Amino acid sequence: MIRNTFFEDSVFTSMGEVQQRELRRTLKKVAEFEESTGQSLEDGFTREQYVALFNSMKIRRTYNLFHFKSLLTKYVQYLVADGSLALEQCNILDSISPDDLSVVYYFKNINMLYEAVKDTIESSECYDPATFDPPAVAIFLSWYGLTKEEIADYRKENVLDDGIIIRGEKITPPFHVLQFFTAMRDAEGYYQQAKGRVFHTYPYSEYLIRTRFKDHVKPIDVVNLVARANKVMDGEYSLELNVIRQSGIFFRAYQLECDSVKFDLSDPVFASKVFCEDFTGKAKKYKVAHMSRIQDFKLYKQLFY
Fold first, then answer.
1. Closest C-alpha to 276, from 296, 303, 253
2. Domain enclosing residue 41, as ranges
3. What angle do CA 163, 168, 169 make, to 5 degrees?
4. Does residue 155 sit in helix, strand or coil?
5. How far apart are CA 171 and CA 165, in angstroms?
6. Are residues 158 and 48 in the same domain?
7. Which DSSP helix (H) or strand (E) runs through 166?
8. 229 vs 77, 123, 135, 184, 246, CA distance in Å?
9. E strands within 172-269?
10. CA 61 to CA 240: how far, in whole Å?
């Protein structure tokens, strides 16, 4: 197969180890798309097929599209040089832009996120819905902009009966969302059906998120909790911390834009505050990230408003 030959060719072997690994991963995604559609890249794709391919990759950021395109272009150029494809394939691939993507995974607002969490819990058919309180709380804290490290260290004392404290500021979530927080704060454990009705007790802890084994979870535990919840629906809702956090940031950015007389995202300092990441460095990567995030925000608004 041509693809196996490519992996042995100097075009591929001369790449750095990281780039080789990323290209292999990209071509694996291509193979999954080919298997599901019965199409083959080696036969050439139409523009519509390339768009469908990138949509199947569930691309959520502008940067990722350009990154995948750059990697895939190396293989397409190899096929052109080999005589397997016409040069037109490079032109078609190059023409794909973020505006062509029809599948961009964001949550419009916290109610949309809540419905995804609710549907996930109901679909799980678990014996005790309280089993999902830890990942649910992590999901909503991510919406409010906390990192996985901050979520792991979030304390019970920050959960009030009428709101939650986020970085020193009181936030009032919708009541149905707040219920997850107060339930997790006051929980002593949860029930599980396993050779009878078994109650698993949480260890005493000052931290909000804990498990039957840990009184203080680590950031990787937070990631794994949410990942397991995401698998219930086979990733249909894209319950992933980075997606959820970015959605919350974009939601608040849109609100700020609507309420502000001056809203200049071209200013790196201002954009850094709005998008909660640093674009002020002088290296090229900061400028690329800055422009990419502005484009991502544009896509978010096109999707929902």
1. 253
2. 2-100
3. 50
4. strand
5. 6
6. no
7. strand 163-166
8. 40, 11, 7, 16, 19
9. 189-193, 197-201
10. 14
